[in-house]
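This part of the workshop introduces the protein records we will be handling. As an example, a complete record with its sequence and its structure tokens follows.
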Amino acid sequence: MDDPRARLRDFRQALVGLGDVLASTRDRQVMVSALLQTTTTYLGATTGVFFIVVAGSERLRPMEKVGAAPDAYVGELAGGIGLAGAASNLGAAVLWPRDGEGVRPSPAEPEAGGGALAIPLRSGGHPFGVLAYYGREFPFDDEDVDSIEILVRQAETAIENSFLYEEAVRLSLTDGMTGLWNRRNFDLRLESELSRAVRFSEPFAVVFVELDQMKAVNDRHGHQAGDTVLIELARRLTEAVREVDVVARWGGDEFTLLLPKTGLAGALLLAEKIRAAAGTAPFRIDTGAIDITISVGVAAYPEHGSSGKELVAAADAAMYRAKAGGRNRVEHAGAGDTEAEQAGQGG
């Protein structure tokens, strides 16, 4: 690295190689891996480590390690501990041994050798990880930091875009109010489940849920209270089902559930469970508490339909029959529950 021309050539190669990777993927792990590998090689460090900031804490957890010492021990670091911890807390590059007695490599970090360097990775202005390099024969200097900063900033832009892309995808597939899957995502999962059920001759069920007299809640207590009720119902539904089940907001005060590998009998048991969960305790709103009930319709494959559209229609029709029967009830689909028979009224 003593030859300035060779150093510039190596830096350009690193910049081009990293840029090619960043332009070809939205996978954040691939980006970080490419950045770690490129910078470790460029710096001539024995070991490079990427530490991720543990969500909700200042702790650092090693996520990836590269270099000539792949078996070097690397442990989790408490907040502010070691070279990587100091870089995360300061939000700036830290060099050892240059930066003094206050900053020393931790025993949980690889051997520092003649020099070590740690530099934070940021998203939204906050560190989400640290790149750390250990075991070079001679100390790092400001020129090393400047070069790595350029590479890191380039990667941070791409990584930030990956976070934005993930958020855009999440918003396109989830309901903004309740956090549940939205109708579009439910439809995609339903078609996938139908294909699997046909292939393996396995049952599954669709459940349609609607709040009873939601209009009266909005009229009496306001739409903000109505939103509170929807959010709380979403929570109760999610807690009542299995991890493999899907809960989605269909629209308005309607929710749908997809129950893989579940026949009609099992679906009816779960439907009674969620009906009870909705009415087991009052719903808290700003002005006090109100009692809420739901009406539930159940349809099962293959008894009540051979397509996703038919199953949803059958479950919907059964739900309206539960409302007509007095509300706060569970009904299962019948042979005549088709899309054409769906009622157009709720309440």
In short: The first helix runs from residue 4 to 24. The chain has two domains: 4-173, 183-341.
